[in-house]
UniProtKB/TrEMBL annotation:
PROSITE patterns: POLYPRENYL_SYNTHASE_1, POLYPRENYL_SYNTHASE_2. InterPro entries: Amino_oxidase, FAD/NAD-bd_sf, Isoprenoid_synthase_dom_sf, Polyprenyl_synt, Polyprenyl_synt_CS. GO terms for molecular function: metal ion binding; oxidoreductase activity; prenyltransferase activity. It holds the Pfam family Amino_oxidase. The keyword Phosphoprotein does not apply. This is Geranylgeranyl pyrophosphate synthase. GO terms for biological process: isoprenoid biosynthetic process. Residues 13-500 form the Amine oxidase domain. Belongs to the FPP/GGPP synthase family. Keywords: Magnesium, Metal-binding, Transferase. Its cofactor is Mg(2+).
Length: 962
């Protein structure tokens, strides 16, 4: 019987794993590798020219190997690789894994240690979270208690969230925003959020998916209880793992072709026929596995490939970062720590390992025999300036990198440890040769894939839709998720199982090891699944205070839930109710909906939210025109599934808008030192429709169930910019009234009005920089410049009888729509939305802004509008031809000429002319069309109360009469 031949491109962990699993099952396997040695980024890299007579070259590496306890695929593979152990006995590569004792974290002010194994068999979630809390708050790194409780709450929320919420909500939020880092202490940002994230992967917390960050972080914490959080190899990687592996694979019949790369895939219809290599060779097989690094797969994913495998079309959206090693070969044996050390204040995000402490064979056989210690260091941030060289690593020479890393490490050490390291002396230094210095700067041949927010959607499955071609690697979708050796191994097993199915093999399928989480939390995840599908927030959103007492209560509750859920499961199966789960889920969902109606919503503004005990506050809120608008808009949404969320959202919106008005009132009351502040107090106190603020707040809630402080700040900023434009517009238009009051320039003078507007803009932009959103501030400058340019065009175009509708739409796009678009985009950004959602909100805001201005044109001209509180016929009196006038002129040029000849003096005649030509009606229709396009832009955004309210608010804006 003919054996099935499989060709594997790539001899990294994924490629070697696939070869191993296939060869054990009798398949003919060939592995093609571009490098001269197998192992990919995991291989050892000898330091060229470092060997003395009869010695081996010093062992270099891409970065030290790390085997946390939740790795189960890799150790399973290692256990099936025979090798000779350090003591000369026979065993497996798994025997070469050495347990570390502790993880040490150093700051320039102190230190804390994490034991890598505790004498406890408990996997209780509350115990883990309590340990986490004690670790940081009791460590001397000055993380405030309330910040750590917030962090623990966020972790517990993720632990008890369903997969549907994790992927539908938290996958699209960065860890930085999920943990609300911008609004919390610097110690919390540095030591908890950034340090934990950098320990996982070379990814910034501002970029990494919250889902990936927390789920894998929990695995590392759980390792402390269930086995060991940190294992390392007891010798150079290639020597104790890769070389025995390749030898074993060759014994199994695997053929290796090294030093040539895969250039292209050749096709026979929709199936792969052969791989074309860089030396011109074409290799055929029955099945093909592309176990290539992400950047290599991106290169060969040409048009032919993408036509047949559309799932690869988004590979270019996946992001890579740099995480490379530098090794210091020391003249003395030192032990900074029996495990990994994290340097918390190092700008280059350094971690280290004293490798020789785990190598029973010693170091005398390497180099010239004088090396007694190896300090292996990983650099995870190549973009931040150093403390000493003052340049990012990417801009440094090898000598500068060596000096900067050495100094950053010394700066973290206590005097005794520093003296020991300096006394050890650096005999040699090796930087990962994947880093190359060229005339164009540093280049990296081995970047790492990182899980950025929203990246799951762009990552392919192993089965890409081609019958005999598959992909494997740390970037494909696996349960391990984060780019690691473990995820690469898991992906290869998934591919092999798929090939076994396609070839109808009777061999056993590769074993898969899903991530383990506390089973006691499963019932809470089921409840959350129902809530998420109903559009409801997580249950913890309903807990007003998350304290140490809350944690203790949750610990006891999860223990009882675990006990009772086992008993309940037995009863359910005995009675056959497991067949009726959909019916029970439906009833449970209705019960939860009813229950949540009686629970007060929780937000940062809960203390100011109207309730039954604050009738006065509620009455005041309801008398506000803004609050009436929100009540009308939310009340008009007929969506029973969102009913509870809509009520909570209504209260939160009103509270946040009241907070905005309160800010302006307090500003006016406390800043009365000079004339300009008087102008601002008058202008800001006159509350308008707050549509821009409402849009910003709603967009910030498209991916979240709460309103952050940053979202309220954005609402204040956008209203401040709007108020500034009104101050300037009134001067330009020579308007006498605004919202029923004399305009600022009439009351205080033109100069005061101009200066007040300028001051508002300055303070608004400064606020953006203060809360840490520099990119939004830069965008706002562009919006303001566009507003100025549009206003200038409008000024120069006044009394221009040749203007057309498109000219006018272009002007109001810059003058009005740009700020609406920015308000929506800024709200979505601080709300942690992914890039696609932020873009969608910006398009929505732009269309809403155009519609808003078109309705303003109608209000200025229509005979039946209410008192607008501002000077009527301003546009006409200043010679501005707005959209209704341009429409009517196009339809009746002679009538327009007659009105123009009379100087547009007869308002009644103008109104009648506009009505006769249906200009006002068609302008409203154009506004409705713009809103429809805005709603269409939001189609990719998931359904929620915030989205429904945003859409209804836009539609309501076209019906206003003032």
């Amino acid at each position: 019987m003919k054996q099935t031949r499989v060709l594997i491109a790539g001899a990294g962990i994924a490629g070697l794993t696939a070869a191993h699993e296939l060869a054990e099952r009798g398949y003919l396997v060939t592995v093609v590798e571009a490098l001269a040695a197998p192992g990919g980024k995991s291989r050892s890299i000898p330091v060229e020219g470092s060997a003395g007579a009869g010695q081996q070259e010093l062992p270099g590496e891409h970065g030290f190997r790390f085997f946390p306890g939740f790795y189960r695929h890799i150790p399973d593979t290692m256990a099936r690789i025979p090798c000779v152990l350090a003591d000369g006995s026979y065993g497996s590569v798994a025997d070469n894994l050495a347990h570390t004792s502790r993880t040490l974290a150093l700051s320039k002010k102190g230190r804390w240690e994490v034991p890598n194994q505790l004498r406890s068999s408990s996997r209780d979630a509350a115990s883990l979270l309590s340990f986490l809390y004690d670790l940081f708050v009791g460590s001397g790194v000055d993380v405030p208690r309330e910040d750590m409780l917030h962090y623990v709450r966020c972790v517990f929320t993720m632990l008890t969230s369903s997969d549907e919420r994790r992927f539908g909500e938290f996958e699209n939020i960065s860890a930085w925003d999920y943990f609300q880092a911008p609004s919390r202490s610097e110690a919390y940002q540095k030591y908890v959020i950034n340090a934990v994230t950098r320990t996982l992967v070379a990814c910034r917390a501002a970029d990494m998916s919250a889902r990936s960050n927390v789920v894998v972080g929990i695995q590392l914490l759980s390792d402390i209880y269930r086995s060991c959080a940190d294992r390392v190899l007891n010798g150079p990687t290639s020597e104790v793992w890769i070389a025995p592996w390749v030898t074993h694979l060759q014994h199994l019949g695997v053929e290796f072709i090294q030093g040539v790369s895969v250039e292209n895939v050749l096709w026979d219809g929709d199936a792969a026929k052969a791989l074309q290599l860089s030396d011109g060779t074409e290799l055929t097989a029955d099945h093909f596995i592309l176990a290539l690094p992400l950047e290599a797969l991106q290169t060969i994913s040409n048009e032919d490939m993408l036509v047949r495998a559309p799932s690869l079309a988004r590979l270019d959206e996946l992001k890579t970062e740099w995480m490379n090693g530098i090794l210091f070969y020391l003249g003395q044996d030192i032990e900074l720590n029996h495990g990994h050390t994290i340097f918390l204040d190092a700008p280059w995000a350094l971690t280290s390992l004293c490798q020789q402490r785990f190598w029973p064979r010693g170091l005398k056989q390497y180099g010239d025999g004088t090396v007694c210690g190896i300090l292996s260091v990983c650099i995870s941030d190549f973009d931040a300036p150093g403390d000493y060289i003052r340049k990012p690593a990417k801009d440094c020479t090898p000598a500068e990198i060596q000096e900067e890393v050495w100094q950053q490490i010394l700066a973290h050490l206590a005097p005794a440890d520093r003296a020991e390291l300096e006394a050890a002396g650096v005999i040699a230094c090796s930087i990962d040769p994947s880093l190359r210095w060229t005339e164009h700067g540093m280049e990296n041949d081995a970047p790492l894939f990182v899980n950025t927010a929203g990246s799951w959607a762009a990552r392919p499955e192993v089965d890409i839709g081609i019958s005999n071609l598959f992909v494997a690697g740390d970037f494909v979708r696996t349960t391990t998720d984060v780019a690691t050796m473990e995820s690469a191994n898991e992906s290869a097993r998934l591919v092999v199982n798929r090939i076994l199915d396609l070839t109808a093999s009777s061999a056993a399928r590769c074993q898969l090891f899903p991530l383990e989480e506390p089973t006691a939390l499963t019932p809470l995840k089921v409840i959350d699944k129902l809530r998420f599908e109903a559009g409801l927030p997580h249950l913890l959103d309903l807990v007003p205070v998350f304290s140490g007492e809350t944690m203790a209560w949750l610990g006891g509750m999860t223990s009882r839930v675990a006990e009772y859920s086992v008993k309940a499961g037995d009863i359910v199966r005995q009675l056959g109710w497991d067949q009726r789960l959909p019916e029970f889920e439906s009833k449970a969902m209705r019960f939860i909906n009813n229950l949540s109606r009686g629970v007060a919503p929780v937000s940062k503004w809960a203390s100011t939210t109207p309730d039954s005990k604050s009738g006065t506050a509620e009455a005041q809120a309801n008398t506000s025109g803004v609050n009436t608008l929100i009540n009308d808009v939310v009340g008009s949404i007929n969506d029973k599934a969102l009913a509870d969320d809509l009520d909570k959202l209504r209260a939160r919106l009103i509270s946040a808008l009241d907070q905005t008005d309160k800010h302006f009132r307090e500003y006016g009351a406390s800043h009365q030192r000079h004339l300009i502040d008087g102008v601002l107090a008058d202008s800001l106190f006159q509350s308008g429709k707050r549509l821009r603020a409402s849009c910003a707040l709603l967009c910030s809630m498209l991916m979240r169930r709460f309103l952050s402080e940053e979202a309220v700040q954005v609402a204040i900023i956008t209203e401040s910019i709007h108020a500034a434009t009104l101050l300037h517009d009134d001067i330009i238009d020579e308007a006498d009234q605004r919202r029923g009051h004399p305009t600022a320039w009439k009351k205080y003078g033109v100069g005061a009005g101009v200066l007040a507007g300028n001051l508002l803009v300055s303070r608004a932009v400064r606020s953006l920089y203060r809360i840490g959103y520099n990119g939004l501030a830069d965008d706002l400058f562009e919006v303001i410049e566009s507003m100025i340019a549009a206003e200038s065009d409008q000024l120069s175009g006044r009394r221009n009888l040749e203007a057309c509708e498109q000219d006018y739409l272009r002007i109001i796009d810059g003058k009005t729509a740009g700020l609406f678009a920015w308000s929506c985009r800024a709200g979505a950004t601080v709300g942690g939305c992914n890039a696609a959602t932020v873009t969608a909100t910006a398009h929505f805001g732009r269309h809403m802004g155009l519609a808003f201005q078109l309705i303003d044109d109608i209000i200025d001209l229509a005979p039946d509008t209410n008192d607008t509180g501002k000077t009527r016929y301003t546009d006409l009196s200043t010679g501005l031809l707005t959209y209704p006038l341009l429409l009517a002129r196009q339809r009746d040029p002679q009538g327009f000429d007659a009105l123009a000849a009379n100087g547009f003096a007869d308002a009644a005649e103008i109104s009648a002319w506009l009505v006769a030509n249906e200009a006002l009606e068609d302008t409203r229709a154009e506004a409705a069309r713009q809103i429809a396009m805005g709603v269409e832009a939001l189609l990719p955004v998931r359904h929620s109360a915030a989205k429904a309210t945003l859409i209804e608010l836009a539609r309501a804006s076209t019906k206003r009469l003032r």
